Amino acid sequence: MKAKKRLPKNRAAGLEQLFGSRTRVKLLKLFLNSPEKMFFVREIARAINSQINSVRRELLNLKDLGIIREVEASKESYLIPKVDTQKKFSGKFKQVKNKDVIKKFFQADGNFILFPELKALLLKADFLLEKNFVNAVRRAGSVDYLVLTGRFVGMPGISADLFLVGRFNRRKVARLIKSFEKDFGREINYALMSRQEFRYRKDITDRFLYNILENKKIVMVNELGLK
């Protein structure tokens, strides 16, 4: 008889146990999702919302493993991660002028032999976390329509990461999303609508709604018969 595959009971503990710390997991996600970008220490600490000493320690660990490399750059300008009002990585980057002649940056090393496997592992872990997240949201009310969009699909310009239509206890949903923000390591922007509000906004071709409906998204629940 074939044994069933088991998932970790703690929804976020799997990767932390495997890689040693939450900070290391956050760093891996940052570097592997943006392998072409160069980051310096203080901006990394702000982007992943972690203590700078912890960041420095884990950067050295990842450098010793060969996953990232240290780069000395003297460019006129460079890209740094943009952070929101809560000092969390927004998924976007901004260009700034280099005031110093030389700065030390860290960057993913694409020549690391296990680079593709590491990236695939993190993607799979995020998928499992997203699945747990969706199941928890579905239990928070009566769901007619549920989509993951925005930063869940690599489009941070969309104003919502999670869009819900149905009947919900709004406080319960807010608490639930807050708890999962810690696991994802970033803020989750979301929008809730009743069926009545959804139909009205759809009828008047509401810009906010159609920005979600017409862009890239992952449809998890569709009781509205939308195409």
Find the CATH topology of the largest domain. Answer: Arc Repressor Mutant, subunit A
Question: What form results from the Cα inertia axes?
Answer: elongated
How many discrete domains?
2
Largest sheet: 4 strands, mixed
Spatially, the strands of the biggest sheet line up as 7-6-5-8
The unreliable regions are 5-9
Number of DSSP strand runs:
8
What portion of residues belong to β-strands?
Answer: 15-25%
Helix content: 40-55%
Based on CA atoms alone, the radius of gyration comes out at 20 Å
The number of helices is: 8
Tell me the series of helices and strands, N- to C-terminal.
Answer: HHHHEEEEHEEHEHHE
The helix-and-strand class reads alpha+beta
Distance between the amino and carboxyl termini: 41 Å
Q: What would CATH call the class of the largest domain?
A: Mainly Alpha
Q: Can you give the mean pLDDT?
A: 82
CATH architecture of the largest domain: Orthogonal Bundle
Description:
This protein is 42% helix and 23% strand. With 227 residues, it is an alpha+beta fold. It has two domains: 13-113, Arc Repressor Mutant, subunit A (Orthogonal Bundle), CATH 1.10.10; 123-222, Beta Polymerase, domain 2, CATH 3.30.460. α2 crosses α5 (115-138) and α5 (115-138) packs antiparallel against α6 (170-184).
